[in-house]
Design a protein that fits this description.
The structure is a single chain. Strands 1-2 form a two-stranded parallel ribbon. It has helices at 4-18, 28-32, 56-64, 81-84, 86-98; strands spanning 43-47, 70-74. The protein starts with a helix and ends with a helix. By secondary structure, the chain is mainly α.
């Protein structure tokens, strides 16, 4: 985030997610779905060292999911776990998608 406009873009995502008055009425259906549990199986990955969203959110997510959905904390990874541990994240995704 080396330029102010990048900081603004990053923050705007969160502002519009949690502040309904900033949401666009024509996107109400899609925006409300952010807080719904998807009907398809879900793999929730969370970096154990995430400094933005506390890892205890993974426990909260696990309470709302049923098999075959699951939650996996990724050790030695923060908020951008797919960049910090790409091989591990890729393996977790592939394994989840190919399980029978």
């Amino acid at each position: 985030m080396d330029r102010p406009e990048r900081v603004t873009a990053a923050l705007e995502y969160y502002r519009q997610t949690v502040q309904p008055e900033r949401q666009l009425p024509e996107l109400a259906s899609a925006q409300s779905a952010v807080f719904e549990i998807p009907s398809q199986p879900l793999l929730y990955l969370h970096g154990r060292n995430d400094g933005c969203l506390h890892p205890m959110l993974a426990d909260v997510a696990a309470e709302h999911l049923s098999p075959p959905s699951r939650v996996q904390l990724v050790d030695d990874a923060g908020h951008f776990l797919h960049l910090e541990r790409p091989a591990q994240v890729n393996r977790l995704v592939v394994d989840f998608l190919t399980e029978s």
